[in-house]
Structure formats: structure tokens, C-alpha cells
Design brief:
Largest sheet: 8 strands, antiparallel
Strand content: 35-45%
Order of helices and strands: EEEEEEEEEEEEEEEEHH
Shape: globular
Helix content: under 10%
Length: about 220
């Protein structure tokens, strides 16, 4: 049996950054609309919840533990957002240039990219594509302040809850991560052509479609 070795050259990896955000509003019927670029995205904080143990006792001892269902949530922060996100944030535009709030919020999907680095290639090592399905944005504060000698841009923030989608052979999920260092360049190119658009509009493929592309 080989002896374990730590921190070998090329194995000191890290993950950082957030970029290339794409919004996919959901249409009636459950299909996602064409993706639009989300400029000014500054942070996505993933916040899973649930998966808590509930102890069951019998014969005066701990008999077993039952785990509650796990849910996926997140917080999105940005300096701005696409016009198409308005309906996801409870806004409607009855007339050009006029926006009203407190409307029904629509479901959306989201894609963003984080950078993978290591000790030999730095930030050129690779990246991960994060896909979020069935997301709903909660109302959030918007703090407007006077301009002074140290001006700051307003940062918008939204809490997000999700509804999982089906995955063949697995439990439903609301999130999927694709590691560029672990799949073939051909599969990665095909997936990104869908996510970012190429000969067709950008779209959000469901997990089973992603698996099919990787298998092919």
C-alpha cells in the first residue's frame, strides 16, 4: 500500500472568483427562456440547508438517526442586473420606462463560473461552471445614499430559494457543477455552446441533457 504524501507539486489547488453570470428566466410551461448576460455580478453565496439528523430512541438507547431533506439556497449580489430579471424580482413594466413593484415573481435559472488555480498554472488551471435550477428571488433592501467625497455604487442583493429538478438515477437537484479539468474538451465546448449561445440562443440544459453531452 502506497504511503500518503501531502502538497505535491501540481496538487495545491484552490477556487476563487465569480464571473460570466447568465440569467435564464422561466417561461410558462416550465421551459427556460434564452439566456442573457448578467453584468456586474459580484458574489454568489451558496447556502444549503436541511440534512439535519433527528434521533430516534428505542430500548433506552439511540436506535437510529433520520436525516431531513436537504434544500439549496443562495444569495446573489451585483452592481446591476439584466432588464429580464425584473419579472423575477417582482417588477413589471406596464409602459416603457415605468416600473411597478409587488408583482408576481417568476422562476429563473442561473449559470456562473468560478476559477480553479494551482501552484504550477495559477488561475489558468481550469474553472467550474455552476448551474442553478428552479430559483426564486426574495425581496431585498436597496439602500440609496447621497453622493459624497467617497462615492460608492449601490450593491443589490437577493436571497434565493430553489425547487429541484429530476435527474435520472439520482434524487432531484437544484444545482449542478461542471469541472473543466475532469471532462473532455469536446464535451465542455458543447455544454458552453448551449449555456452561452453560439449558432443558437443561449439556453439552460437540464441535468439529463448535460449527462448526455458528457457521455457522447
Amino acid at each position: 500500500m502506497a504511503k500518503l504524501v501531502w502538497d505535491q507539486v501540481g496538487e495545491r489547488t484552490y477556487e476563487t472568483g465569480v464571473q460570466k453570470g447568465v440569467l435564464y428566466p422561466m417561461q410558462e410551461g416550465g421551459a427556460y427562456s434564452a439566456g442573457v448576460a448578467w453584468n456586474g455580478l459580484t458574489a454568489v453565496t451558496e447556502s444549503p440547508s436541511g440534512a439535519e439528523a433527528s434521533a430516534i430512541y428505542a430500548d433506552d438507547i439511540k436506535y437510529l438517526s433520520l436525516m431531513s431533506a436537504e434544500e439549496f439556497g443562495a444569495t446573489i449580489e451585483a452592481y446591476t442586473y439584466p432588464d429580464e430579471f425584473g419579472v423575477c424580482d417582482g417588477s413589471e413594466e406596464p409602459k416603457p420606462g415605468v416600473t411597478i413593484g409587488q408583482q408576481s415573481r417568476k422562476t429563473f435559472g442561473l449559470c456562473y463560473r468560478t476559477t480553479l488555480g494551482n501552484d504550477t498554472l495559477g488561475a489558468s488551471y481550469g474553472y467550474k461552471l455552476h448551474l442553478i435550477y428552479g430559483a426564486m428571488a426574495s425581496p431585498s433592501e436597496k439602500g440609496y445614499k447621497t453622493i459624497n467625497d467617497s462615492p460608492e455604487a449601490i450593491t443589490f442583493s437577493w436571497g434565493v430559494t430553489t425547487t429541484p429538478v429530476s435527474v435520472t438515477g439520482f434524487k432531484p437537484t437544484a444545482t449542478l457543477i461542471i469541472d473543466s479539468t475532469k471532462i473532455t474538451p469536446t464535451a465542455l465546448t458543447a455544454i458552453e455552446a448551449l449555456l452561452y449561445g453560439d449558432t443558437v440562443d443561449a439556453s439552460l440544459p437540464l441535468p439529463d441533457a448535460i449527462m448526455a453531452l458528457i457521455t457522447a
